Amino acid sequence: GTHEAMLVTDTTISIYDYATEKVSRQYVVPGVVSICPLRGNEIAVGKSTGQIDILNAVSGQTVRKYFLNTVSSNSSNTPQPLEIKQGSNGNLVVATGLNGLITITPSGVISHFVHDPINPNSLVSTSTYRLATGKNGEVVVGTSTSGLSIYNTQLIQAGFKGFFTDESGSYYDNYTGRMVESGNNIIWIGTYDRLIRWDKNAKTSPF
Hints:
The chain is an all-beta fold. Helices cover 0% and strands 50% of the residues.
């Protein structure tokens, strides 16, 4: 809800109510890796077993499950849902570490995207770690060493931004951490040693 926050450990999800200053609900969910509040009063929970459970945010009951190992031919390398975001079209977008990008439609269709060296519209790297989504289908994918891929859930293609530059001409092309969109096509990107304000309209990125 508007006045609630989720407190998460690797085994529990607690819903804290700011109005009462108490934990209003608590669910035991072993193996939590990541979570994402969804539209429709649901919560997506990424688990260390390589699956995503969709919980009803009121009852805590699991209403759907998705298994990410269905997209991997290597049974010993199950994709891990390191970060989950919901796109503007309702799709779930999942960063999996070393296993590329996964999308899941509201009807349960799972698609897998990886880097293809002969396809300029593929992801810049199969190593995906951080995500930010926009209202027009944009998905910004942070990689470990190869900058950002700019993906669109409606166009099904990716672009590439390999580095950022500030007003003084300094460059940054290293690891990207947390990303948050603040509106007006502005994305804040946390890195190892600086904070980048990427204005996609003005094409500026001071840090």
